[in-house]
Structures
1.
Amino acid sequence: MATLLSHPQRRPPLLRQAIKIRRRRVRDLQDPLARPAQEVGPPSHHLSPEERALLYEETLYTVLHRLGQPEPNHVREASELLQYLQEAFHMGPEEHQQMLQQVQKLEKPIFCLKATVKQAKGILGKDVSGFSDPYCLLGIEQGVGVPGDSPGSRHRQKAVVRHTIPEEQTHRTQVITQTLNPVWEETFILEFENISNSSFHLDMWDLDTVESVRQKLGELTDLHGLRRIFKEARKDKGQDDFLGNVVVRLQDLHCREDQWYPLEPRTETHPDRGQCHLQFQLIHKRVGLAAPNPATRWGTGPACQAATILFLHATQKDLSDFHQSMAQWLAYSRLYQSLEFPSSCLLHPITSIEYQWIQGRLKEEQLEELATSFSNLLAYGLSLIRRFRSVFPLSVSDSPARLQSLLRVLVQMCKMKAFGELCRDSAPLPHLVTEALKTGTVEWFHLKQQHHQPMVQGMLEAGQALLSLVQDIIVDLRQCQHTWNKIFQNTLKVDLFSMAFLELQWLVAKRVQDHTAVVAGNPVSPEVGESLFQLYVSLKELCQLGPAPAERWALDGFHRWFQPAIPSWLQKTYSVALARVQRAVQMDELVPLGELTKHSTSAVDLSTCFAQISHTARQLDWPDPEEAFMITVKFVEDTCRLALVYCSLIKARARELSAGQKDQGQAANMLCVVVNDMEQLRLVIGRLPTQLAWEAVEQRVGAVLEQGQLQNTLHAQLQGALAGLGHEIRTGVRTLAKQLEAGIAKHIQKLVDVKESVLPEDAILPLMKFLEVKLCYMNTNLVQENFSSLLTLLWTHTLTVLVDVAASQRSCPLASSRLKIALQNLEICFYAEGCGLPPAALHTVTFQALRRDLELQAASSRELIQKYYCSRIQQQAETASEELGAVTVKASYRASEQKLRVELLSASSLLPLDSNGSSDPFVQLTLEPRHEFPELAPRETQRHKKELHPLFDETFEFLVPAEPCQKDGACLLLTVLDHDTLGADDLEGEAFLPLCSVPGLTGTEEPGEVPQIRLPLTYPALNGDPILQLLESRKGDREAQVFVRLRRQRAKQASQHAPRPGR
């Protein structure tokens, strides 16, 4: 008989009865005061033989009478489910067959379809108002065996319920007025006998009541409504309108269905008639046990066979979701306390109970049972949290997720209305968790302390045990900071890290203070000192981990406990470093480590040793500013002392290894390595300010030190060590340079001694080959800094040798030419395309003077004469003073006639060279140099008596081609003389007009208006000219001697008539 569902009282399922029986037995046997609440363990989950047999019978009955299509993740075959049950209950074959036969003889259940009409949407509007008054007729048609896709089946789907199902088996929903989206939420129980030939039918109708035309016109809203009025007029009064139907074969249903079904039409007039939301559940009319929701899984989930059986049982017995969740919570909360499965399995029943909680739905006994389950799980969860370090070790990858899941379960449980009503006396969960964590942290500390307790009770062993304990605490705090704290903060707003740090630092401080007090009263051995240092470093790391202190820590000022051990720490650091340096030098073979690394093994060991000292200093990082400064001074002093000791040791090692060496090249190799090692050491020492953080030290001690004290201590020590290393490096490089200087001097001397027939380029080859071999060797074996220093020494020595040889070869142009070419090639060699010395280091004052001298010495006599006139033309251009007087000329060149025309206009402000206070001036005109114009004789102007401002106004023409006039040094020499009757003419002065500046000489056009040129008179150099001196040294060159004699005569005349002051 189908009836509208209410909530009838049901007897408790068999599984719940079994649990209650077991709990009573346990409660009778257990002393409630036997253990405190936080130690509550899980009760036994074993069943008695009677309970086990009843439960096995229920599960067999469920499998034999399953209904509906299997779920996708469920097992289809009943044989597989029966085999699984036999294995799960540990039944023997005979016992299993016996119970199976008993169950098969039991009466079959009454099969029912639990159908819920939820709602509909988008249905047709049949009334004048555009809406409908829908209701549904539903029932089960039995005995129909027509296949679902046959024409007969389609015909029956068109039939309405009242034509296919007897009236007593037809059910009707309420009428929902004036809507197109009705909501019913009505449930019906429909019985059937054979699922294979039964179908569910639902018709939806629009209730049509008798109304007057006036009422219908009042509801009219549009033309569609008017059309419906005319349609109503043709219809029988009170006849309901068909809205659509749904037909579903029961054998196509799963045990539970929840879908939207389209409303099918009887004709094709309106194919889209909306949808209807239906829920189906195939059940038995036989009370059974509640099964857990199959959606809940632990591990990989219960076996699919078990999920299938539980699902079928709960469905067939029509257990409400609330009672299923209640049974699931009671079972899982107990099983969680004894079995290994994720606590997240408890979230689903918690959520379900909370959503459906109504306290009056449970009996007093059930409420007590639920409250006990809450208390037991909370106590068990707190015990796990207290021991979370061992229960959830990070060595297991899913431990953080498991702990987070447990906390979420406890949080959700404590938020439940059921928990608040049944466990009113429970403290807030964050408080309970905080207390559990504090207790667990202290317990964990004592366990670790006991674990590290040494077998031998000595001072060293006690220190090592304490060090291991502190290191374990640091590891634990890091885990709390990076992993666990995030979980507790996000879930409960509990700061696990800060709480654990505060608890542990008090415990650590007490034990460290006791240990250092014992050590301070006894001599400190190196081993104990090392243990103390490691303990100090670990405590520093522990304090750096801590949060910003809101109050004073127990570890504040802990460094004072270690103050007596500082001298032993510093001494041991130096002793260990010194021993390491000595051992490194003794094992060093003074061979480069590689092609790119040119220092030896001892330099690497020394760098590592200094890095270790710097690391020790950074580890120490003493908090007190004054003491920290003194410690830094000691570190720097020891480091500088080690550097100088290393220099002495490495030089002694080089002498030791080279003592038995006959090959001088091998000795040079070792010397190169020694110099490179020292250079590497200098680089390492130079990094001390950075490695020891001098800036930070200076900022810390600036307020307590006197002005300049830091500069006079740390910087003075460092500069002294660097200066000593620099001296040692320069000494080594100078020794290498001396080995090459003799060879360079020898090849330069050979350069000037070769036969004249040898070309200069060939003469310098031996010198360049020697340098190429030696410098390539040095570049291979020296680091760049030392190689540059060597190049500087060799360059200076080479220039000195060249200057000496050039001075001895002044009168030999050939030798000077070779030296000049040698200097050019040496400059290229030492520059080495930018890899050698820079131009600034090459172009010294000595180099520039030597280059000028060799340029002159290598030139021929005529080239020197030409250079002399170039210098006089330059002197003429730079002279602006007319203290000797001046001449005015006009000069032009006619290329068509190859004539140089000179108009000598006048002279002015001449010196009075006669005794009467005047002069008898005339001008001599010559084209210089004479070897360029050998055919042109000198010309002279008329003599003017007693005249210091003569007006000559004379014109001279020189027949000369343009080519010699355009050469460097070509000029018109204007010599102003004072005529003397009895003796030689006196020199008034000379003026030089460069021929290249004469108009018409460089162009093809004839000159137009020729400008006047005023030339101040000049004297030859009184102190001698270097070019004249060089020409004078060439005794065998007649042309040079004649030129020098004339120039000397002019200079002598100039010296006799120097201008009077103030003129």
Note: DSSP finds 36 helices and 16 strands in the chain.
2.
Amino acid sequence: MEPLELNDDLSTEIDPPFNVNAEDWRRALQKVVPAVVVLRTTSCRAFDTESASSSSATGFVVDKRRGIILTNRHVVKPGPVTAEAMFVNREEIPVYPVYRDPVHDFGFFRYDSSAIQFLSYEEIPLAPEAASVGLEIRVVGNDSGEKISILAGTLARLDRDAPQYRKDGYNDFNTFYMQAASGTKGGSSGSPVIDSQGRAVALNAGSKNFSSSAFFFPLERAVRALNYLQKGRDSCQDKWEAVTIPRGTIQATFVHKGFDETRRLGLQSETEQLVRQASPLTETGMLVVDSVVPGGPAYKHLEPGDVLVRMNGEVITQFLKMETLLDDSVGQNIKLEFERGGTSLTVQLVVEDLHSITPNYFLEVSGAVIHPLSYQQARNFRFHCGLVYVSEPGYMFYRAGVPRHAIIKRLADEDISNLEDFVNVLSKLSRGARVPLVYINYKDRHRKKSVLVTIDRHEWFASPRIYTRDDSSGIWIRKPALPPDSQLISTGIIQITQGIASMDTSSSEHVQEESNNGPNESRVGEEDASADGIVIVEVEDSTSSGDTVARDDHDKSADSGNASVAERVIEPTLVLLMVYVPSSCLVDGVRGQHLVGTGVIIFHSEDMGLVAVDRNTVAISASDIMLSFAAFPIEIPGELVFLHPVHNYAIISYDPSALGPAATSVVRAAQLFPEPALQRGQSVYLVGLSRSLQATSRKSVVTNPCGALKISSTDSPRYRATNMEVIELDTDFGSSFSGVLTDEHGRVKAIWARFSTQVKHGVNSSDSHHIVRGIPVHSISQVLNKLISGAKEPSLLINGIKRQMPLVRVLEVEFHCTLLSKARSFGLSNNWIQTLVKKDPVRRQVLRVKSCLAGSKAENLLEQGDMVLAVNKKPVTCFNDLEDACQALDIYDDMDAELEFTIFRRGREMEIRVGTDIRDGNGTTRVINWCGCYVQDPHPAVRALGFLPKEGHGVYVTRWSSGSPVHRYGLHTQQWIVEVNGKPTPDLDTFVNVTKEIEDKEFVRVRTVHLNGKPRVLTLKQDLHYWPTWELRFDPETSIWQRKTIKSLETANNTG
């Protein structure tokens, strides 16, 4: 963890260091360096002030016999952590947290000292009393990721204010810090600050950006804690037991102010004289109240600006003396004497146990981490300690718009005052239920916010669990949070029979969460952005000036005269889709978790409704979809039934019975009108919905009815439309608007869809971008007919009824168009040019092979640059000709049917038979999580790059989680796992069988092959406690994504 950054710009002039004997430093460093270790820590969950992360830092041995390492609190972490220490000779051992101070920036790891077999080292003695201004020091540690770095400096101050790091994160307080110009940077947190005798006089903690100033924590409180740990360890025979280190607080923050400032605050001259006489001559000021936490012992007794004079009759001017008194008085009364604006006051306060307001347990539900509000964050936010605090919103709360740092006040119309209340309410809810939640946020603390929370309908995440810290073992013990008979645990799904009144969807607050280690840690293996920090893609439909007509549902009669006939006809068929993708199933390269778009109802009956929408809105099958209807103010869930493997559209189903009689009477399907096709110059109406469900339309002219779509591959492979002809207009509503194109009678000619692409800036920078084009409804009509007719193909449960789903025959080849004038230059004969012009006098083009998908039947048959002249003896000039040829094979009911291609290759004409591929509309339906990485079969966007490793290509890493073993050891995305412990893993089933044999805490050797073809071998340690192996798989029999635990610590113990 790199040193923390400061927000202020203070600096201190440092005198040149005094000359010291070089031999003294050599001897000191020779003794110190072997006792300094590199700590590689993995914060497995977001908790309190810290996010899930993997980082490197420094620690040093302070007790060799008992095996105790001292480092910073922000390295030990307040939440679950796994860590290893590497000594100077590269011996690695696991270390376990035994103590992290609730306030100050120090903590301890323990280790098995007998495990170090090949290194001679001694512990580093702690000497806080040796620190003095002008002392020449060395900082020995893992600076900027180097294993050992030695930085020189001179102590310039011993009374610097504690550095302020973040407004919503960890900050130290009620202590002085030391300052020196040693220039420490990332990874040196926890380094010993030593003198020429090899003693640690301070602990490196933080630094300032853009300067060489570093800040050190004084060691007096660390020495006290170490003494408690040593006594506790000696009292146990064979193992560590949890040691209680008394820490007291009145929940007030003090700052040290000079006497001049205290006089301006109203300090009486007599009091100042008394304090000066009772203090050392070097004393320069007094302690002043800076803030008080609401609900704490000092609340309503102390106020900011109060000057502390005495505590239990003793004059107190230093933090150390005050904290010593508080720590020795836990649970007892103390007498405080202070002055407020020149008035002397006295108060009796009860000293509270600081550990009692420091959370040591949390609830994990739907990827969210929820726990009592800590003293640290209560001080930052000025809330009561113990409130229900959202440390990580996860999926369920993110979907509702609940941000990180929220305080939950009500759930399902019941008051929530503590975590036990929250769990009790949660246990009464069922899957699919939608309940109101009220929260507040420190950024807008005076206004409560109400949102709807949807309990996960699918089994995206494990059932809710409580994790409790166990300082004896150093791990957090997991247990079920809900009773076995809880409705939330059962897999039964609520059948929604009534719709939910539509809310203003724009009121949901969606926040962007990034994988943030904080500025004080060195990130490990940052190769890509496919971790838990998800880029939120939230595209809003927008309106613009021009020939727009916006309708307001509250007074349709008032504006019906202004709307076009097409708009009035099509509006009842339009639907606004809100799509959410769970973080546990971000497959196929998808990065956006929240997407919005307009769809059109293409079928509506008593038992099934179908909506067509672009794949930019519904990108993958693992999604939660909510439909809001323009015809009636109601919102109901939808389910994906068909995801076209090539074209940019999806079909969503809904249950018409959930609409209710009133909505059913006005909701209807649009009339699809694929023939005749649109022509250049023809007028159409572009109609869609805004985010407020207002219909928006304009009249436009078709400028190109058959434009060849050209979308390049993205840096991170994800779905892109290929082999499509699209419709272009003279004017539209911009790249964020989707809807339909109709004729003047409101008949749908095309859906107006968004296409995802990428715009590159320079060599290493790129941004996601969208374009909008029209997709003719011809292909949609064909798929719809198959859905309705129920061909004998794979079935899917839709609204409780099994229905046959269509299969699509595709040619897994990407083509592009070349003008015949260019083709002539490549040597194409005049006879073929005349034939193709006669076939299609408008396009005047020939199709050329751009690439074949790796693993397809066309691979090794068709080559890049081949010109396709005819298929089955019929000339072809466009993508539709190829699709028609593929569909013509369906009548033979032959899964291995082939097409006879006539191609032109390198100056000569030839005949080739090419097999076709059968694809369903389910998309990716299986994902496995192992050690925090998500693996799946390679999706088409990956195969379109033309490479699959020969060793096996069935285990593709699509994403990784922050704080996981793969994060710690650098197994990232865009590569295949081809071997585990020397055993090939050609497919997911084999991969599961191989990894099931690996035990907890066992090191694994993994061989990977990157998309660029580069092989790599790495090792990682499996952690079944925090990262069990599990699988998500879609079950067409129930239409539910089901979660299955493949191997966890519990299953490993049962089988062992």
Note: The chain has a mean pLDDT of 88.
3.
Amino acid sequence: MIWVWKRHPPQQLRATENGGPVHISAKWKGEVVIRERFLRYALSDCGECFGAVFCADIIMVRKKRTGLPSADERSQSQQETSGGGCGRGQPHPAERSVPPQQQHGGGGCQWGRGLAPRGGRGGYGSGGRGIPSSAGPSRPPPPELHQAIQVPHQQPRVIPSQPTPSEESSTVSHQFEKMDIHDGADPSEAIQPSSKSMRFPLRPGKGSTGTRCIVKANHFFAELPDKDLHQYDVTITPEVTSRGVNRAVIEQLVKLYRETHLGKRLPAYDGRKSLYTAGPLPFLTKEFRIPLIDEDDGSGGQRGEREFKVVIKLAARADLHHLGLFLQGTVLLADPFILLIWEEGSHWVRGWRVGAVSIKVFVPTQMGLSLNIDMSSNAFIEPLPVIDFVTQLLNRDVTSRILSDSDRVKIKKALRGVKVEVTHRENVRRRYRIFGLTSQATRELTFPVDERGTMKSVVEYFYETYGFVIRHSQWPCLQVGNQQRPNYLPMEVCRIIEGQRYSKRLSDDQIAALLKVTCQRPHEREQDIMQTVHHNAYHDDPYAKEFGIKISENLASVEARILPAPWLKYHDTGREKDCLPQVGQWNMVNKKMVNGGVVNNWICINFSRKVHDSVACRFCHELAQMCHISGMAFNPEPVFPPVTGRSDQVERVLKTQYHDAMTKLQPQKKELDLLIVILPDKNGSLYGDLKRICETDLGIISQCCLTRNVFEMQKRYLANVSLKINVKVGGRNTVLVDAISRRIPLVTDRPTIIFGADVTHPQPGEDSRPSIAAVVASQDWPEITKYAGLVCAQAHRQELIQDLYKTWQDPVRGTMTGGMIQELLISFRRATGQKPQRIIFYRDGVSEGQFYQVLLYELDAIRKACASLEPNYQPPVTFVVVQKRHHTRLFANNHRNRHSVDTSGNILPGTVVDSKICHPTEFDFYLCSHAGVKGTSRPAHYHVLWDENYFTADGLQSLTNNLCYTYARCTRSVSIVPPAYYAHLAAFRARFYMEPESSDPGSISSGAAAGIGGMGGAGPRRTRVSCANAAVRPLPALKENIKRVMFYC
């Protein structure tokens, strides 16, 4: 028997089944099965209560009720409520239980030596937080989440909605009632609760800290249409994957039938399955036959014609009044597809220019629906003969030599998906799409020419059929068409078609050239945006008129605040013991690192042929002196003088020099602290190979320096390198004065750990390489400047971090638990002597469409990891998403006012916006925490998805802004909060640990092996099937001494 408590009579309870409501009323007879491993709350119809609270893996409601609860039930409910046994402060014992399989060795805790289990929430008291009175905080506590019992059939969990003040106060006076819950539900009968029933935290008011100002945003207010919007499902047969073809079909349909069958409506189509109209069409469902003439292929012959069957069926009608209330912040959006109309139907507001596109998306904001317009640049493939393209790609003349395997892989990646046209047929210009290269040279390729299987070589065929002599027969052919029936085309007969966007990875030189051409100062970008608005002339656009859309032609004026920079603490032996940054930057002059690291034994290896030994020696001496001046204990003399090595023998050189150094140090019981490496300016894979060998094989901290910087030997550069070396060997550069004086709310009052997490995905075109997840966590408190990092490989383009929490079976000890969160919590305990009593989790790289999915999965993993360490250990969590890939830009209200812009013309660092262009109801804000260097600054967007620490707007905004001044690699504030930045760096570093890029990614046997390069104690490497069912090669493990420091800096 498991008790289920609810806040209102049963007629107000609502569960969900396949996304729809299942009402349970007092007169309802029958049974409803709810199967959920971590179901907490079901929304109520009245909208004023929490609904029911569930805590079980598989629970079944088999309650055949014909009236109100019995007297026994009511008395039991009153007894439990008044006795404090199951109130908000002290949940029922069934809720607080932790399954045996999640305890280490069947009981106790997994924290390590000297830490005994403690009762209560997070180990700081058994009473919980209790129910606040009406005079309590303006934003009451959300419902608590606790560990759920694991079963073989795992399901996603529903996380509770956060209550409003009226909800919280109203629940105190209600009596709890109970319902009978029985185990043994059939999983096949499960009702899956929808994530739509979950609410993100409401905005806890707007911030007030800082100097108020006005900024302009590239948002344009859009008036809601006064017409009814209808959504229709579209089915096109035969089905095609190209949106362009689908749009052409619907465009032809509108051209043929708009005045008749469509009732003169002009529909908006998303290119896939949805079509929208301003008012109803004169039918509920209708079938059309649409002829479509193929594109001109340049052959000069008659173009083919295809017929498509199009079925249009009414799907839904949008409630625009409800949308208006949502934008005013008075209700939650019940019809999410309304916003989809504007996002998917916005293809009619597009504008192009050379090498750039204006991005336009409708977004819901506090000022209503707004059109976000921005300029975005892209690289396009130069229309060249394929031979010339390959020559440029490989950066050498290879027409007279056979291609190597690495050359083939590089060419294949660059040309896959590219459209070409043939040039050997005079006026015929047939077009094809490349999908691969042949493994054989052109001169070796043959194919059947008749039904008898007569074979002919490609060289002979082209000479006999077209009179074309193939000169580069040693090169492979392009494979075009499809893989079932490939066609072979020699490279020299193909030319790349103009106007194709290049989506592959750009080289460093290409990126530099692109930035140089497209970089725009703020006032230039603002002018381009305004020109786009005037050019598009929305007031004359047929779609705008059809749907009744009116768009402002003025940039939105937004109230903003400039948060003050924090004071930074440096060592007391320096001339300047603390520092107040000016306009987001400062320097190390007259300052010493607050905690200098120790480097007693170091060596230098020079892989650059341009740098002579004397230059290398002088550079090392200058660097050692700078480290000493900055506050490190740095031995000026290396173990032996700098040595020169060949870059094509990096592994042999590194291992030889490491062995020689250790042979000299080990008799003295010393270790090698640092390796300084001088690299060529263009070093290819040398940097990655070096980091992989040092960090996963030899266990050496390394610092790489490019040749040009060695020759220039600038003081600023040496100072920055010394900052990186210090944190790599375990030191601290600076700390916040407010941190060490315990003046940061909700951080320094009790042990707090701050996480950063990110997932980096392979470049487009790399179809089988895994994604890399990285999680970092602070390891010092209250300073919060040192971060340990863990990395793992997971399925291709999988955004959810799979190894936050994991279990496996040990033959001797049974069910074991581990994962990245658990390891970092243990590491924090060992470093500080205390367990975290608060968790702040900054998650990078999540789009709005993934918010629910990421929160449901990753918050659950955090909960499980905490509970696996100690029974009832559930520290409150704040989960914040950090977004940089958005198109909101902020401009100074007056570009000529020197007091409102920095030296680059951008808004001042610390500028925060939490009104007007932000979400109508949820807790989010834009923060430009850095000073611009070049181009237009992009503010970071922070969106709070879960908040059990009850941050105020000022509290979270100030914390985030202040943390941006603690970034270890430079003396500038950075654009995103450092934990998220470090996670990105760690994930990027881990890419070097994988197999070299020169090998063509091959298929591996099914099943995914997840490898974590993390802290010890995570359990053995194991093979598991990821949710994407893709094979993943595990990363090599980091050496123990590497794990403890910020190796990724």
Note: The chain has a mean pLDDT of 77.
